[in-house]
Amino acid sequence: MKVAFGHMGTLTPIMELILEDLGHQSITPTRPTRQTLARGAKYAPEFACIPFKIVLGTYLEGLERGADTLASGGGYGPCRAGLYGELHRRILKDLGYNFEFIFFWPPLKKPLHFYRQLKKLKGNNSWLKVMRTIKKAYGKLTILDELEMMAQQVRPLEIKKGSTSRAFAEALQIMWKAKTTAEIATAGEEARAILKDVPIDPARPSPLKVGIIGEIYVQLEPFANFYLEEMLGQMGVEVRRSIYLAGYTHHDVLSTKGDKGSRRLAMPYLGQKVGGHGQNSVGDIIRYAKMGYDGVVQLAPFSCIPEIVAKSIVPRLSKEYGIPVLTLFIDEQTGATGVQTRLEAFVDMMAQRRSRDLSLGVLNHKTSFFPRAISKA
Ligand code: SF4
Q: What pTM was estimated for this model as a whole?
């Protein structure tokens, strides 16, 4: 089969690895562009959120490059995520494309359906081979998460602007090419060394720390969030996302419970699931506040109900936990310059708060800032 799929951060090389390992041709998507989004938006219903539009544009590109199959995974209500796979399929069929659609529900929610879909990808391979491929892919994903976290730590300290992003791109390419378990392990060592070699300024004061929370696609796909991690890093801010793919796979795909830590924290404020990562976003704000972060950026596709619900609780959380939160709603009209301006103002405000707290002696920045990760892996 010639299989295309949506682009979502570092999931892309993992999907390619799985497909090629199982003997399929991967029609690997390139990073989405404004053109991809414009094409998706043209055929998507107006109410659809931006991840839907970007992914639709990516499918169109894949089908035009010769894909005969589309592979996708989807959430499970109560927000619109549960409907999006079927909606994508119908829109593309109405446009005249002929393709097989392999759509994965979370395996523990609909195990039989998941099994049937996986069987299509399995082809003539044994189940043992499929399991080995998945295990290998998970190992690679874990290293990619680690590399992302390293880049997020190094970037605010880099001496030459852009050097971390270049190093990360090089490290990603090395990881991308690694196909066997042994190659992945060697590539991981090489990739870590590249990021460790980025020249940093050790005299720089402890950088501001910001947690990134919100809907999964706009967190993980840099095109969808205007390369916000790089923007913040180059403003001297260390970021840590609430979602990394290996952790997400562990908590949300291979388990029905989700990230219990965040959900438990959210309970007094939002006692039920509202779809997407809405409840997690509430808990994640508290988690970052308890970890001594300087602020939180909430990323939300415009009209995303789960994040709108979370946003309605933000003022209370911000006040009770003393942490500033910036919410960025994103749609196809949003521009990079507007995002940059709002981030600059937010960073200025956090820097002033930090120096005020230091001068009042209520903050010891050497001990109050946390460890380097809250990875949920
Ligand atoms: S979580 Fe938000 S952005 Fe994602 S499908 Fe649901 S409503 Fe849309």
A: 0.90
Using the mean position of ligand 1's atoms as its centre, give its distance from the Cα of residue 317 in Å.
22
- Are residues 237 and 194 both part of a single domain? no
* Residue located nearest, by CA, to atom 2 of ligand 1: 304
> Domain limits at 329?
205-377
Residue nearest atom 5 of ligand 1, based on CA coordinates: 81
What stretches of the chain show up as alpha helix (H) in DSSP?
Answer: 11-21, 34-43, 50-64, 81-94, 111-122, 127-154, 163-177, 181-196, 216-220, 228-234, 245-248, 260-266, 278-290, 305-321, 336-360, 365-368
Task: Confirm or reject: Cβ of 49 under 6 Å from ligand 1.
Answer: yes
Is the shortest distance between the CB of 259 and ligand 1 below 6 Å? Answer: no
> pLDDT by residue (tens digit) across 88-139?
999 999 999 999 999 988 887 888 988 999 999 998 999 999 999 999 999 9
Number of domains in the chain: 3
